[in-house]
Amino acid sequence: MKKHSHAYSGLTTYNDGHIHHYGGVTAKAKSGVPHCHYMEGFTTYNDDHEHEYCTETGPAILLPNGLHYHYFKTRVKVADGHIHCIAGYTSAD
Hints:
Distance between the termini: 16 Å
Shape: elongated
Strand order of the largest sheet: 1-4
Helix content: under 10%
Radius of gyration: 14 Å
Strand content: 35-45%
């Protein structure tokens, strides 16, 4: 069965006087079946630190044209004594 992935990017929440950018490509998952994608990475380096994140997207959200996308929301790991949250949508595939 064919596999696919999605791109994603965004900004963290504003905490401790700053934000971070993040982005990447999800892990591949089987196409044509109910599925989620694993996501992991690091935020940009800002305010002398970065944050790691690892999470899974929600299930596929179908579009009328047959493509789909996913919602995600999680907290990044603690760094420099604080956390941020990330949330958004992947690209449609």
